[in-house]
Design a protein that fits this description.
mainly alpha, Ferredoxin Thioredoxin Reductase, 3-stranded antiparallel beta sheet, two-stranded antiparallel sheet
Amino acid sequence: MRTIEDMFSEMKKIADEEGYRFNPDQQELGDILDGLWENEHRYGYPSCPCRIAKGMLADDMDIICPCNYRDADVEEYGCCLCVLYVSDDWETRKHDPIPERRPQEYYEKGYPAILEQKGAGGGDMVEVYRCTVCGYLCGREEPPDLCPICRAKKERFEKFEMAR
């Protein structure tokens, strides 16, 4: 049976490949990992512990750890929203509050509905990309380096157009 240590070991391997560090405060790190572990067992996937998950994979695709917002948060603020991933200079940086990048409408209407609405000319959202291996969808400026579901590399993503 997979343990929380196994989960973290897998996450660490991937983070090392991507050049990310984890929160150096062991107590904070442990609390965040506990939240991910609980969400994985509650929903069947490790949704971000600092966001409200709907419990339906399609609606929560953008908040599966590492979430769609991690890269931009770490670049701009030195850490992701839940402070699991941190930059190399995290310990010497001023720690300003990190605003929620996930649009409120994702909570209200669900991720797939918003992607469909935006894909149909309903807004100015960034591109939608689809992992050609597992079908994961994400709305970002560019596809992630690795798919958070199947770990496929960036090259395996394609621009996705919603059917009209």
